[in-house]
Design goal:
Layout lengths: L1 E6 L22 H11 L3 E6 L7 H11 L3 E5 L8 H13 L4 E5 L1 H13 L5 E3 L4 H9 L9 E5 L2 E3 L27 E3 L2 E2 L10 H6 L6 E2 L2 H14 L4 E4 L8 H17 L3 E6 L6 H10 L1 E9 L3 H6 L6 H13 L5 E4 L8 H13 L6 H7 L6 E2 L3 H8 L3 E3 L6 E4 L4 H29 L3 H27 L7 H16 L1
The protein binds iron/sulfur cluster.
Iron/sulfur cluster binds next to loops.
Amino acid sequence: MKVLLLEHPRSYGEDRCNDIANAPLSACLNTGYIGGMLASKNIDVTIVDGYLEKLDYPQIEAEIARIRPTILGIHLVYHWENNQTLYQFIKHVKAAYSISYVTVYGFYPTFAYEEILNRCPAIDSALLGENELTFLRLVENFPNQELQGIAYRKDGGITASRGEIMMDVDSLPFPLRSKGSYSFGEVNLAGSRGCYGGCTFCYINPYYGEAIRKWRGRSPENIAAEIDAIMKETEIRYFYFVDPNFFGPGNAGKDRVLKLAALLKERNITFGIEARVNDIEEQAISALVDAGLRHILIGLESGRDESLKRLNKLTSVSDNEKALRILRKYGIEPSVGFIMFEPDSTIEDLKINYDFLKRNDLLEKLEISVNVLYHHMIILQGSASYKALQDQGRLNISDHSTYEADTDYQNPKVATMAGMMRDMTNHIFAYMKDTWELSFKKDPATLSQYDLVNRLLVYSFAGLLNEFESGEMTAENRDIYVRSFNQSVDLIMS
Ligand code: SF4
């Protein structure tokens, strides 16, 4: 039996370019891990990476025609619309190449499997939650699909259960990597699964199993062995840990990181990680930087303790500031997650957030300001906030999918300002899309344009706060303001 695993092409509309996290980064190794599991059992499996290898649908069809799989597995990613192009493609290739069975997996199917099975009759099932063992059992028991971890149609309805949680993550075979995995100058690695936190906007734990809410780390030796295997395959020496939370909890978590740092240092590589601010401590960061740490993403999320509490971040503003201080002391300027506009924000919250960003030098670069001065809270199915807002009758589900929702801001001034910032930052993003490469190469003319736009953006944000507070800015003149701001950006960038 042949299995083909597909990463489908992704497309994002211009108005959604600033909306992140429709699939957490950790999902990027979903297909690789399933592939690794099947290959370890000598099952004939091929990965076609339409995303990283930039294949279009005719090119993917040619691969399907060549391989002729019995089972087609698709890592289904929501991309802010209803995926009809992909569904039509699945229907077409299933019939044209006599594919016996199509299954989908990933975050989106785990939470929105009913909608997907209803929209696309050509999809036979969805694998829910962790999926390596489920996929293996599906192949071994084929064509019986009545197995744990699968949502499938039965007796006019849908029967569903969650996949078995992989507690011993060292026992997982290493991911199977297609050439797309090596196409962007770095190699993704997963050193752990789950998170010991519980932020309201996040669905990492609901995906990995709410009942156990447990971070599960691979041993440093197991990670080092995978890196050694990759280094034999490629010249790339930059690794990115896609773990939602690189650090495990407590002293055991810290000891593991120190041990891992020692092993990474021996390999003479560089790497990036994502972490909670409360785990940023001198001893660990100094060891990791010494071992090659160059990039880190930390979730600051807010500059106000009350907001952090609402988000159940379990951190404080002083934790945020301490983390920034330590990272900068060791030469790391972090990427930051920040939610400027959350559903219950007040103008006072926005002011405190702005002051926090300003005093911590987080508004110096356009690449950062354009994100932190706009990001709103994305509400996706599976998260605690989705459920809480639904229970309160405040959830507005998207026309595209039950997976995506928003809510009306409690405060009308915040609602107007959020809408304005969205229009203004999207206008800037449209320019950055075309000039990103130049700014990355530090082209002086582009850097100077970015600097001017950044100053305009930061100045405008501060001005808007004052105007909303004093009542000068109203919903009626918001369009005039946005138009004038965007024209100024056009002038600078032309
Ligand atoms: S720290 Fe919060 S946002 Fe990050 S993975 Fe954990 S629960 Fe999710």
